[in-house]
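seq as requested:
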Amino acid sequence: MMENRTLQGRVIVVTGASGGIGAATCRRLRDDGATVYEFDLGPAAGGFQLSVNVADAQSVDQAMAEVHAREGRIDGVVAGAGIVEDNVPAEEMSSEEFSRILSVNLFGVFHTITSAGRYMLAQGHGSCVAISSMSGNHTVNTPQKQCAYNASKAGVSALVRSLAAEWAGRGVRVNAVAPGYIETELLAKKKHQFAQWLAHTPQGRMGSPADVGAAIAFLLREESGYFCGSELLMDGGYTLI
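struct tokens:
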């Protein structure tokens, strides 16, 4: 059964690959034996790094086509690109700002998973993992104001369940991880709120990007084969109290 606990020989695409969680996920997947293609904004570095704007369906499709042309298969995808507004009260948020967040966090996940999913459906197997958030369906974070982010992550959770129901019978699994507060460079900008968050977290600590990468690797492996439309909440107990 050890072959179910490895990703040896699998071809996996990760979006948001240069971020804290994305980079840790790429490292974990490579450690588990996968060939990992990194999609992110910015100039392409060549090799396994491709410049992709997940908000642009054509950009995603072109990059996925390049991966498939090189490898002949796509076995897994991690939709990890995401952004958040900076403490904007809902009554002051413009439609443009709301759309900007959803274009990456929700449309980007849709573009990523459906683009990879078409190859997976054709080959009859594959595993997709989206990075949602405890903010989607499990809690409303305080004291920060982030209605667009929260709405986008709730949309990701619903999208994952919908795609899972559509594709399960055709050999493609779709699941999500829902992290709580994770120690990343992006979150470090809100250090003034750490004490309040940690006081509400039974484990008394934030998660690490490696924690999230491990959960994603599990969902991509065959040992998680009965997970279908699941969302793994990993928040150190934050939503328990």
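DSSP finds eight helices and seven strands in the chain.
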